[in-house]
Amino acid sequence: MLNDDLIDDDPLRFPLSTAYTFDRNECDNIISKVKFNNITASEKRLVKVFEDLNKLTDMQRVAITPEYLDLKLEELSLKYEFEQKKQEEKEEQQTIKEQMREEARALKELEKAKEKVEKEEKHFSQAIEKMNLQLQKANSEEQQKLLDKLRELEAQLELTKRNKEDVINRVQNTRAGYVYIISNIGSFGDSVYKIGMTRRLEPLDRVKELGNASVPFTFDVHAMIFSEDAPALESALHRALSDKKGNKVNDRKEFFRVDLKEIEELVKRNHNKTVEFTKLAEAEEFRKSVEMANHSLHSVS
């Protein structure tokens, strides 16, 4: 650990104090504070302490060996890997909890929609039954008006039944949902798209939530794709764009740096229905903010 060819006075004082300072006071402190996001700074601090202590004891020809520094850097690296794993597990748990909350919100919305459509179905059925009774008692002149109203009610009932079937299908098919392609130029720049999915009855509610507090500007929707197997479609797009991920470390991040045309082509290959894409991001808040900033600069100049 130490080179001590020549030591003045006490032959043990310098090596022991240097070793203790480096090992206990400095290394332990740096290693204990390393986190998933500060490994580079921690390595630099460790090397700097190594160099500074060796400069202080240079006159006594006492030095901490590079081999010992390497051991400490390895220890630091192991602690960093441990902290990184802890962070990944924490993020995974957060993702799972968010997915559970999202699923609960979606199910609540669907159950509420089911109750509403069942109530509407009952209302129209009763109205039709009442109308038929009125028809039996009506004269010929009144009958025509009642028949027109009856046809209208029957059409509304038919539409309600179709809506009910759709809602029940969504409740029963837990994989049915929407895959969304959204962007946020003001927050992430051009050609960066988030590809995610939601089972919400109103998928735009999910997009609004994503743009509420975590980013300075709202998201623009480029495509909203309904699929009977939304998780499969989302996974297929993610796999195809894996080399375009903005975050190469965390697979749970859903941002991709890619041309929108490429996403559109992938959707066509993996989805059997026509999907309408919005090419240009409106980015209204961002563009207005840029205009206001430019106006302020011109006013000052």
UniProtKB/TrEMBL annotation:
Residues 187-270 form the Bacteriophage T5 Orf172 DNA-binding domain. The keyword Coiled coil applies. Signal peptide: none annotated. Residues 73-170 form a coiled coil. Pfam families: MUG113, SNIPE. The keyword Coiled coil applies. Keywords: Coiled coil. This is Bacteriophage T5 Orf172 DNA-binding domain-containing protein.
